[in-house]
Design brief:
With 405 residues, the protein is of the alpha/beta class. The chain is built from 17 helices and seven strands. Required for the transposition of the insertion element.
């Protein structure tokens, strides 16, 4: 498409005496309307095979039959056009199909604004300010509802047969349910493929977080094709380890070290917290499990009488803490914390912070899905030093990765 020369633009400005941006928009709106009208006329001419003023070359028993007025929504606001008709009613315009009344891509814009956390009322107001036509909050909601089939398809899509790591955590919201405000959990699963790339495997809306619901999520993953997971990285929810073992008995479960530390620190008063946390570094920085246990027992000797519960949780959960110690630094950085999924939750909170209560589960699901799509677009790079990570995993889990590499 050719562009206007500077001289042509200067001439347009002189001839139209533009005084403001509104003047420019009004001019462009008129031009846009004229172009659409000419395109419609050209389409009918091609359909009939003769020009409007060239009846002598007419070679059809069909003919023009006036116009039908139509109001369309465009990026320049609402525009009135005249759609030409033919006598037989066979003409089907392509530039603006028969039932289309929106040529602005407005739906995509509404969904993009919704994905950024704007309320339906704010979106309605912004559309009116930008494009000069009214779009009610109810219509905004209906537009965003149109992505429901897309969400369903995404939530049911086939997954990889094996994942190196899977992170699981829930984020909590308030949702209306038959007039009552209830607490709901969005169960989020994030996977790392054997190629080292992150992906959100799904989001499930349910009651307050429970291991029973997580078991249903894990079974859903199996039904979508996930046959094996090397390591699940999770927080300390009661019964979660047992749920994972029931669904994926070969998988290792790694408790988030950061969650474990926070759980210990809540038993220690502020006056001893710095010294206690410094001593604990000796445990989770140990070069192997044997040294880590030695350091834990030294810690118990020093602090165990004063703060027994702070130590006991490490002893009671050692089976889901200890897998961490057999790995080198590259893998430890990945699995010692569920920060990766907490970072995703921070992105969710950015777009949901203006919504203290959601009207339905589906409205919550919509915004979390749209936010997820925006996040996943940015996950274009795999984990650093992934070749070394994969080499370690192949050795640590013999026979489970080879057929997929």
């Amino acid at each position: 498409m050719s562009t206007l020369s500077k001289e042509h633009i200067k001439q347009l400005v002189r001839e139209n005496n533009f005084q403001s941006v509104s003047d420019v928009n009004a001019y462009l709106k008129d031009i846009f309307k004229d172009i659409i009208q000419e395109l419609l006329e050209a389409e009918l001419e091609a359909e009939l095979g003769y020009a409007k003023d060239d009846v002598a070359n007419k070679n059809t028993d069909n003919s023009r039959n006036g116009y039908t007025p139509k109001k369309i929504k465009s990026e320049f606001g609402e525009i009135d056009i005249q759609v030409p008709r033919d006598r037989k009613g066979e003409f089907q315009p392509k530039i603006i199909p028969k039932y289309q009344r929106n040529v602005s891509g407005i739906e995509e814009k509404v969904i993009a604004l919704y994905a950024r956390g704007m309320s339906t009322r704010d979106i309605s107001q912004q559309i009116e300010e930008l494009y000069g036509f009214s779009l009610s909050p109810e219509m905004v909601s209906k537009i965003t509802d149109r992505i429901a089939p897309e969400i369903k398809e995404w939530q049911q899509r086939p997954l990889e047969p094996i994942y190196s790591f899977i992170f699981m955590d829930a984020i909590h919201y308030k949702v209306k349910d038959e007039g009552r405000i209830t607490n709901r959990a969005a169960y989020v699963v994030l996977g790392v493929t054997i190629d080292g790339y992150k992906d959100i495997l799904g989001i499930w809306i349910g009651d307050n977080e429970s291991s029973k619901f997580w078991l249903g999520v894990l079974n859903d993953l199996k039904n979508r094709g996930v046959q094996d997971v090397l390591i699940f990285c999770v927080d300390g929810l009661t019964g979660l380890k047992e749920a994972i073992n029931a669904a994926y008995p070969k998988s290792e479960v790694q408790r988030c070290i950061i969650h474990q530390l926070r759980n210990s620190f809540k038993y220690v008063p502020y006056k001893d917290l710095k010294a206690f946390s410094n001593d604990f570094k000796e445990v989770y920085h140990a070069i192997n499990e044997e040294i880590a246990l030695e350091k834990l027992y030294e810690l118990k000797e020093k602090w165990g009488k004063e703060y027994p519960f702070a130590i006991r949780s490490w002893e009671n959960n050692w089976d889901v803490i200890s897998p961490f110690f057999k790995f080198p630094e590259e893998i430890r950085k990945i699995i010692y914390t569920t920060n990766i999924i907490e970072g995703l939750h921070r992105q969710f909170r950015k777009v949901t912070k203006t919504k203290t209560i959601f009207p339905t589960d589906s409205s919550l699901e919509k915004i979390l899905y749209l936010a997820s799509m925006n996040v996943v677009k940015k996950w274009t790079q795999r984990y650093k030093n992934w070749d070394r990570v994969l080499s370690q995993l192949v050795i640590q889990y013999p026979g489970r990765l080879e057929e997929y590499i």
